Amino acid sequence: MENAMKPLEPKTIRPPFGHYSSGVAVDAPQKLVVTSGQLGVGPDDVAPPDVLEQARICFANCGAILAEAGLGPQHAIRVAGFVTRREDFAAYMQARDEWLADAPVKPASTLLIVTGFTRPEFLVEVEVTAALS
């Protein structure tokens, strides 16, 4: 059975703030893929000036890495996002939710505010863990 993932949502804890799972269980994965943090910069080394477009690039880059392993967004079990400003949460979450729109099980998700990245124009970074079971 491909991608036997189960969302974990105990009734004893507060439900997620958005479109993600509190936890995800994967039985006996056949393949596990972990991306490095992907920044919002295209292959031309240009970063758009807004966080939404940068986040879309981050997720597209993660998707390309997963595709190299024969996986896609529907295999994501965990997403970690990093932004430099609290006001960028909504734009980041919009890009995340677009990328995961067709995922039958929403992955676990973490979003952190950080002081910055390697270049000042970078506003967001995303890491994805995916599994095939």
TrEMBL record:
Please give one Pfam family short name. Ribonuc_L-PSP
Q: PANTHER family, alphabetically? A: BLR7761 PROTEIN, YJGH FAMILY PROTEIN
Which named protein is this?
A: Endoribonuclease L-PSP
Protein source organism: Ketogulonicigenium robustum
